[in-house]
Every structure is written in structure tokens, then in C-alpha cells.
Known about the structure:
Elements: H1 2-20, E1 29-33, H2 45-51, E2 57-61, H3 66-73, H4 77-82, E3 86-89, H5 95-105, E4 107-118, E5 124-135, H6 139-143, E6 149-154, E7 160-163, H7 187-194
Parallel strand pairs: 1-2
Antiparallel strand pairs: 3-6, 4-5, 6-7
Amino acid sequence: MVSIMYTQLFNLLCTIADDEYHGKLPVHVRCILDEFANIGQIPKFDKLIATIRSREISASIILQSKAQLKSIYKDNAETIEGNCDTFLFLGGKEKSTLKDLSEVLGKETIDTYNTSDTRGTSQSYGLNYQKLGRELMSQDRLALMDGGKCILQVRGVRPFFSDKVDITANEMYKELSDFDKKNQFDIEKYVSEYGKPKFSKII
């Protein structure tokens, strides 16, 4: 049912953008698709995510691991991932996610020095210098990453290794239901006060 709702939502928004606003919505619409693996497969989502951005629509896909995306969308999973400009890793232990992330982060160059000291009838001393490459963050380091850290990748920019944001320190935190249950959105109250939303065109 949820996947059907999202299908109708994207189709409706795209139609309104094309027919009423010359292909671009006047107000950007961001869809936060939490627990994306549990809402079922959205038909043709691999094509939708490639076309909605030009209409001022974006989607944030939230998953426990990349394996969840592959299990639902099969061969189209890479297309969906490729159309996401931003990747935020909050931690995890799923092997394919760690492997892919480690490869994308690339390698770093390290300098190594080896010394040798030979003693006998004549003493000799040697120094060997090498440049070697290793993963910027190996899979085991990613798996053991501190829970307060995250890795952010933005297209065209080098990855960021950063602290997670403490939302309780934000001045707007008191407006959330996490702070006070009274702030929880009541859809029934909203509809009774403002009425049902009206659309000029329904698909």
C-alpha cells in the first residue's frame, strides 16, 4: 500500500510540474523515504529518480544496508544508487556495504623506511625507502567506526569524515515530538481544521 501511495505521489507531482509550472515545481518537494526496504518496490523507481530532480523533487533513501536495495530492485539497484548525489554512512557491519564504501573512498599513500644492519668482519648499513598504497579506510576500520562519527560523500567532492549532528543542541529541537509528544502531527486534527487537500488534477 505504501509503495502505491509513493507511486501516485510522484506521478501527481510530475504531472503538476509539467502541466501547471512549465516542468518545475515552485516549491521544492523532498521525500524522506525512511525504512525504504520495508515499503515494497515502487514501480519504475529507477527511472523516476533520474527524472524527478529536474522538476524540483528529490528523494532521500534510508536503508540499513546496500544489500536491502539489491534484494528489492535487483539489477536496477546500481542505477538508483548512481542517481543519488549524496551518500551518508552512519555505521554498520554488512559486508557488501563496507566493501563498496572502502573501494569508493580510495587509497592513501604511505612512506615506508626499512633499515638493515649487517655485522661481521665488515659492517654494512642500508636504508630502503618505498611509497605504498593502502585503503583510506579498510572494511574492518569501517565496521569498528565510532558510533558518533559518519562519512559523507557528495558528488564531485572528496569524502568527509565527521561527527554526527546532535539534534538536541539545535534550537528547533523543542518543536519535535521527541522533545514533547504534544508536538506530534495529528492528521485528523489537521483535516478537521483545514479540510482535505484539493488538487486541480488527479491521476
